[in-house]
Write a structure and sequence with these properties.
By secondary structure, the protein is α+β, with helices and mostly antiparallel strands. It has six helices and eight strands, in the order ββαααβββαβαββα.
Amino acid sequence: MHPTSPFPRRSGTAEVSVRPARPADAPDIARVQAVTWRTAYRAVLPAEVLDGWDEAGAADTWRAAIAAPPTPGHGVLVAVEQDLVVGFAAYGPAELAGDERPHPAGPSGEVATLLVEPRWGRRGHGSRLLAAVTDLARAGGTARLQVWLPEQDRVSAGFFESAGWARDGWVRTLDTGGTPLREVRWHTLLEEADEDR
């Protein structure tokens, strides 16, 4: 079994795993998102976004995304340790940027978000989530994965770079209601990821 397989395995005395999210996980996903954004993204996201966070509304949005994904290619996974949801990843088909043409390698998928609650960081949860998304994307015929990261988010950039991802040159600016948020796009070709295993 690959060391980052999404199947349950023992890590010390605690069982850790990645599994598809269930509607009942929505409040935990919203909590992980709120805690992670308020802790790790305080310098990146506008204060009004963080301070005005509606956790119940976010849980409703996640519940809908899990129960009725917009396409069969969309999904949400959760990382679990000691029966607690400690992280999650959402993925789906990639949207082309501006006048971008489809990638010559084949269909592209996108990691919409991948977050691990900071107190559960550095325990392999992020790597297991990314491996599970990669395995599902590959099984669905996806040739390439991409993710948009805030330009200032060096921690996430380092994580994806250590997994073999690289910037692909695309940049976008999001209107957050405050200071615009500049994001850069990272990507990986799944055939190359296979060769690295």
